[in-house]
Design goal:
four-stranded antiparallel β-sheet, three-stranded antiparallel β-sheet, globular, single chain
């Protein structure tokens, strides 16, 4: 039933959603959002980036406000009653049913769309129609679900928006994380200033699992490099190591197939140009974890690297590769 209603609401709201939104929408992806970050930073006169984080977003959505906005576009009473039941269903915790007053609950098929609708009105439409016309310079928003950044040409614009953004979110029950929300100088001018005057390097920001860094290309042009966020890399390695521990007694051929699936999945998302070094870190980390847990089934006898090398030749792991091509001319601006 939720899937049917989701298809219906998608047909309605795809006419309303703005181009800055990429999360949980038909034909849109996180990779496209990352491509757009590169285009905005490299091809527009952007000097400041506001990295924002919403605390417990899915749990703090005000349901009454959400339903009020949905009722503007959906007139069918039966559909509205279903949505009302789904967002008020509560959660099971330790065998007890907990009924909360806010939030849409993660895990339901329809929850990502409802969360998108909420931020469309709270952030996207407000930023496009109210904020940008009042700014001195250019400004851009790139959002994937509740993860978003705002890019600005001038510092005074960025500081003004940050001040009113907090009040805007508080009005609708949302809170910007005080430690993870910050304004940094970033872009072509920040890099040139550091090169000419010295001092601290341009800041970096995290978005969709990548740390974004100001760099020069081999030809000396400004470009944007990405690295897998340290926390994400460590988390992925912990998961791979835990898998090796659980399955260390499986046949080697089966272990190799499963580990290659893990590696390919990692490369498919994180395999962006300029991120090859992080891919190699993950590949080498998986190899070390595999050797460690294969050692545990040799009853105290360590597996020599020579023997492990022969094992890798017989059961090779997928080496890193770039799965996502350059987006247009981002690397050559």
């Amino acid at each position: 039933m939720q899937r049917a209603v989701l298809d219906l609401l998608n047909a309605i709201y795809e006419q309303d959603f703005l181009g800055c939104s990429y999360g949980f929408r038909p034909g849109r992806s996180a990779q496209q959002a990352l491509d757009e970050v590169g285009r905005v930073i490299c091809q527009r006169p952007m000097r400041y980036v506001l990295e924002a984080d919403i605390s417990a977003y899915f749990d703090t959505i005000v349901r009454s406000q959400l339903m009020e906005w949905i009722e503007k576009r959906v007139r069918d009473g039966s559909i509205l009653r279903l949505i009302g039941k789904w967002i008020n269903v509560g959660v099971l915790e330790d065998g007890r049913l907990l009924i909360t007053q806010t939030g849409v609950g993660q895990g339901q098929v329809i929850s990502p769309l409802l969360a998108n609708i909420y931020l469309h009105y709270v952030l996207d439409e407000w930023f496009e129609d109210v904020v940008k016309p009042r700014l001195r310079g250019q400004a851009y928003e790139i959002r994937y679900a509740d993860d978003f950044i705002l890019c600005f040409q001038y510092r005074e614009d960025a500081e003004k928006v940050l001040a009113v953004l907090r009040k805007r979110f508080e009005k609708y029950g949302l809170t910007l994380h005080p430690d993870k929300t910050r304004l940094i100088e970033f872009g072509r001018d920040a890099l040139s200033k550091w090169e000419a005057e010295g001092g601290p390097k341009p800041g970096t920001f995290d978005f969709l699992g990548f740390t974004h860094i100001c760099r020069r290309s081999r030809r000396g042009n400004f470009t944007l490099h990405v690295r897998t966020m340290r926390q994400r890399l460590r988390r992925s390695l912990r998961r791979a190591s835990a898998w090796c521990q659980r399955h260390r007694h499986d046949p080697l051929a089966e272990q190799r197939r499963a580990l290659n699936a893990i590696l390919r999945g990692h490369y498919q998302y994180y395999g962006r140009p300029t991120n090859f070094r992080s891919l190699w870190k993950f590949y080498r980390g998986v190899r070390r974890a595999w050797r460690k847990w294969l050692n545990r089934r040799t009853r105290g006898r360590s597996l020599p690297w020579r023997v492990y090398g022969e094992l890798l030749n017989a059961y090779p792991l997928q080496r890193p590769y770039i799965a996502q091509p350059w987006a247009g001319a981002v690397s050559h601006v």
